[in-house]
Amino acid sequence: MPLSDQSRKPGRPPKQPADVDRRAQILDIATDLFGRQGISATTMASIAREAQITPALMHYYFGSRDKLLNALVSERLRPVVAEVGMKVVDAGDDMRDLVRSFVRAMIDAVDSRPWFPPLWVREVLSDGGKLRGPLIDGMGVALIVPLRDRFAAEQAKGRLNRDLDPNLLVVTLISLTLFPFASQSIWRTRLGATHVSSDTITTHALALLERGLEIPA
Amino acid sequence: MPLSDQSRKPGRPPKQPADVDRRAQILDIATDLFGRQGISATTMASIAREAQITPALMHYYFGSRDKLLNALVSERLRPVVAEVGMKVVDAGDDMRDLVRSFVRAMIDAVDSRPWFPPLWVREVLSDGGKLRGPLIDGMGVALIVPLRDRFAAEQAKGRLNRDLDPNLLVVTLISLTLFPFASQSIWRTRLGATHVSSDTITTHALALLERGLEIPA
DNA sequence: AATTGAATTGAATGGTAATTTAATATTGAC
DNA sequence: GTCAATATTAAATTACCATTCAATTCAATT
Fold first, then answer.
1. b/e burial code for range B34-71 (CB count within 10 A of at least 16 → b)
2. Per-residue CA distances from A162 to A153, A155, A199, B80, B101 (Å)
3. What residue in B sits closest to A216 (Cα-Cα)?
């Protein structure tokens, strides 16, 4: 344990009883801060402060800020996408099932990871986001393209409202699940919607989609 | 005209034939950069470079970075919200009309201002966004609360799908209109959806909403 | 023509960020 | 016990960044 007491001297600290993976702890704190403040607003020093270590130790563990961001992507963000992707692949062939499992999987994943939605919205989806390349080019496309193609196929068979665009439907899916979380503090406090839970968000998204995909009479 | 040639010397430059509002030009460039890179990633110097002036001149025109952000809010962002707000107020009392006019007004407004969606998504909607206070507390709530209340009222009268949440419906409205724009470059290039236009986005959003709000049989 | 005001620049200033370095203390294997 | 590896700090170093300031040039009055 590092700076916990006022005056740490250089040197390896004595081992503590419950001494877990230090690097992982720091990465957790960094992930949380990146999520809350955005990447460019979060400095190495501010992460160090939060983790009660010196900035130098950040470099000891991660090498550089860039490498820290790489770690964020591969060790924190990618697993979430992979998790959602697997659940969606496991879903039945039916388009409804696909939509349902996407929404459920995403909201499940996000429920235990509050940093994910803001991070995704700011740094992946928004143009110029810092994490876009590594995530979208990698697995993002693998998750998204099949969905789009499925929607297009269903539409060709006349089983999906013609006024919807298959590409935008994918965007819609993502925004219905992530956006409410990323913008929580607005509607929770300013709209006073304190009762809204993850379940409410799931029900809302599914209700809109189940009906919305139908072909108008 | 300033740095256009390699070696500008100090001093007021000779008047040019077409010499328009310099400050407004610079604010336009700044707005564009803030939209593309996010606020904290955009330095005074980078704006100056883009505008081909010195950082010092930025301060001459705007006083400070903070004041530049104030100008961004009051002279560029607020007018957009005001414009949308007015069109929505002018809409009929019917909930459908309200939704339609919100979607159309928002997409109209955004069409000529590509910087708006990313800026709004990153700096207003996302938690910790730098522009949230001045915009949401000001007029944002005035636009959003009545919408929510209207939805709630319709729902009470049994004219809106019970599974939807009135608060989230407002969030949905915003995400359906802004998100596709803010994330354009992803789906345009990586999904190859080059044909998708503002009209496509409008049609898509309205199709989903018109059906989605209905009460399931 | 003289004077004031507006628009610019180059060159400080002080601050903060990322990164490096050398020193130091503890652990764990032999 | 010795010693290499590990974990840690304080103190540079280097690079920007926002901001200020004095000097300079052009424009507009008078």
1. bbbbbbbbbebeebbeebebbeebbeebbeebeebbeb
2. 12, 7, 30, 31, 22
3. B211
| Contact residues, chain A, for B180 at CB < 8 Å | 168, 171
Select from A183, A118, A211 the least CA-distant residue to B167. Answer: A183
Whole-prediction pTM = 0.91
Rounded Cα gap, residues A89 and A84, in angstroms: 9
- What would the pLDDT profile of B110-139 be if each residue is shown by its tens digit? 999 999 999 999 999 888 788 988 888 877
Strand D atom within 7 Å of B162 CB = no
Query: How far away is chain B from the Cα of A60, in angstroms, using its nearest Cα?
Result: 26
Least confident of A24-28, A140-144, B6-10, B145-149: B6-10
Specify the pLDDT at position A92. Answer: 75
Least-confidence region, from A57-61, A200-204, B125-129: B125-129
Q: Which of A85-99, A113-127, B146-160 has the lowest mean pLDDT?
A: A85-99
Q: B60 CA, D25 C1': separation in Å? A: 16
Of A residues 26-45, those with CB within 7 angstroms of nucleic strand C are 43-45
Mean pLDDT across A48-66 = 96
Give the C-alpha separation, A160 to A216, whole Å. 10
Interface test with A, best of B33, B113, B211 (most A CBs within 10 A): B211
CA distance B144 to B148: 6
- The kind and range of the H/E element at A213 are none
What per-residue confidence (pLDDT) applies to B1?
Answer: 44
